[in-house]
Write a structure and sequence with these properties.
The chain is 32% helix and 20% strand. It is an alpha+beta fold.
């Protein structure tokens, strides 16, 4: 029987499911508590179904934890093949090692909640590389999206190594004609001068935030 659980904020998770058959995730639920997979929701997540399948071996307790995928969600559902299976679920918020190094607090409850929401979103979208969106089929490192968030991320988080690694990906993925892709590492092809400018702006912001001349030197060589 399926059951659902809710969290106040969107999480990126890996589910460790004891003896479960299918785990599903979504941001919305219906009035009856079922996950909302209506046409609007499906259109919003594109092709990301956010469903993990596990085939039971049988004969004793089993556990499953996906190692190569993650899902952004507010609600999740576990479906077991019978009503007699006991299911234990552990939800783990995951992200790269980026310690919070600054804090915002004010007398405004609304502003404080916006800040807390930002911290969650930034962490949820920083897994291996800056993601465009963690809950739909845009779990890719779109470089223009990262240009919008990089300064805030470097201000609030100790993200020096995180962005240094990603800047190295830019160099590794540079095309023969010198162009940069719109997704780095390049998974989709295509280029655009405005998007490709992320390499230069990111390198500069990295230097301005952390004073690391070695990384910036790859993009701003001495005359």
């Amino acid at each position: 029987m399926p059951f659902s659980n809710a969290y106040k904020q969107l999480l990126v998770y890996a589910l460790a499911c004891g003896a479960a058959m299918v785990s599903s995730a979504a941001e919305m639920i219906k009035a009856n508590g079922e996950l909302d997979r209506g046409s609007y929701i499906i259109a919003n997540v594109f092709s990301a179904r956010s469903i993990d399948y596990y085939t039971l071996k049988g004969g004793g307790p089993e556990s499953y934890k996906p190692e190569f995928t993650s899902h952004g969600f507010r609600y999740f559902e576990i479906s077991a093949p019978t009503t007699t299976i006991e299911t234990n679920v552990v939800v783990k918020a995951i992200g790269n090692s980026m310690p919070l190094q600054a804090h915002f607090d004010s007398s405004s409850k609304v502003l404080n909640e916006i800040y807390q929401g930002y911290v969650w979103v930034q962490r949820d979208n920083s897994i291996f590389f800056p993601m465009g969106c963690n809950n739909r089929a845009e779990r890719h490192p779109w470089v223009l999206d990262a240009q919008v968030t990089e300064q805030a991320a470097m201000l609030y988080f100790g993200a020096q190594g995180f962005y240094e690694k990603w800047l190295n990906d830019f160099l590794d993925g540079e095309m023969a004609n010198g162009f940069m892709a719109v997704v780095v590492p390049n998974q989709r092809g295509g280029t655009d001068p405005i998007w490709a400018a992320a390499a230069a702006t990111l390198a500069w912001d990295h230097f301005a935030s952390y004073g690391d001349t070695a990384v910036a030197g790859h993009y701003y060589p001495s005359p």
